[in-house]
Amino acid sequence: MNPTMGLQLLLVAGGAIGVAAVARRRGWPAPLLLVAAGLLVSPLVPAVPLQPQLVLYVFLPPLLYSAAFDSSYLRLRDVKRAVALLSVGLVLFTTAAVGLVVHLLLPQLPLALAFALGAIIAPPDAVAAVAVGRRLGLPRRALTILVGESLFNDATALTLYRVAVGAALGGTLDMWEGLGDFALAAAGGVVIGLALAFALAWLFRHTRDSLVENTLMLLIPFAAYLAAESVHASGVIAVVIVGLYLGNRMHLQGFGTRLVSGAVWRVTDFLLETIVFALIGLQLTTVIQGISGYDPWAVAGYAAAVLAVTIVSRFVWVFTVTYLTKLVSRNSAPTSAQAVILGWAGMRGVVSLAAAFAIPPDIPARDRAMLLFLTFTTVIGTLLIQGTTFPALIRRLRVSSEREEYEDRLAEAAAQQAALEAGVAELERLVAEQGEPDEIQKQVIDQLREKSWRRSLTAWERLGGGTGQGGAETPSALYRRLRRDMLQAERQVFVRLRDERRLDDEVMRDVMAQLDFEEAILER
Known about the structure:
3 domains, cell membrane, ion transport, 81% helix, Na+/H+ antiporter like fold, potassium:proton antiporter activity, mainly alpha, Cation/H_exchanger_CPA1, CPA1 family monovalent cation:H+ antiporter
């Protein structure tokens, strides 16, 4: 990477973070605002090229790993059939539908390249949809399906893309050979992912150092992706497998590792996602300049047709699969409203653009420019059309997770009660073994009992929304409010003593960290 490109990326990152900050403050979907800002700025600034290797080898692995790490393996297992039908079946269906339509519209374009375009724009990116869905209370099952689809569909699409491009360069297109390559790549990704997951789990059992463990976690997605891709296996699947396995075992790590890990990956996700969505919009000038020798109205018609086929094919697949699922098992099928939500959540992202930019230079420049333009318009079209209307659609269909949230609070309260009883029983056992405590020990034991009781009470109070009878403040809410004010007063004393040179900075940071952990517990 040359200094100019590094400076461009730094400026893009700074500007993108500023736009994302505005979006977060206003409660707007940050990905959509970033894309729109990129489109507006693109004609006014020098071209910022989208490097495919940068996206596929630097941005994609950590984003995939973080999403898999934060996902629930058990929930994904419950919806594995829906995820497989979307991440494999729908990608194949979209690739075929788009490929055939493009071949009819542009008969001079080789069939293999038409299918390559289908593979490029087949996989949706669920970042925007999941962000909106979580904010508006989309049911957990629908969110899990969207996340699971986004974790695995890139592997299917990138394998189909390689087969189609290879056929375009070699002159033949063998679908059976392509399916065989996909099966081998997927199997290789699973094997490499599991091997790395087992090795890393063993390593983490022997480290017990939160700083070392989280530093290693930053390297894991790159190691898994490179290890798989170096043997022509699916790097996407390898990264997802490692992330799911280690995320499911995170409870075995120390509390320090879990606390640091959450902060590390929130920052990493925020930085990478803001950059990639800004980069999408900034490609406007580059993409338009590559189109030449075509009638503008014809090109606009091609773009509209591909966008329409991409959106419609997802609806056709989702509703067909939903109908067939209801015939087999009505309980496991999504409702009609959920099917509409899943059908409309097909926003494309940066992986599609990276694949289009990665089309080999051996492909004729005219064909390459057309594929890149159609990819760009489809990505932008789905993000701006579907993304901007997605919140209104969720509200209009009244798809809500309110019942799930109540059940979650009820389950948490019951679990807290069971944990309280187990903790108090263990305390009583230890006291009995120790013998009659003295006065100071009695005070400590009483404090432990009170702390357990307060935590259990908080969980039950949450069922009432944090208010008591007549809207009065509950004891736990009162405790948290007063303790937060006390913590702020204590911090001011430490800062004043530091400024008066009566307390060293290092000592102040240590005591501040203790207060911060206590406030984090209060917020929880």
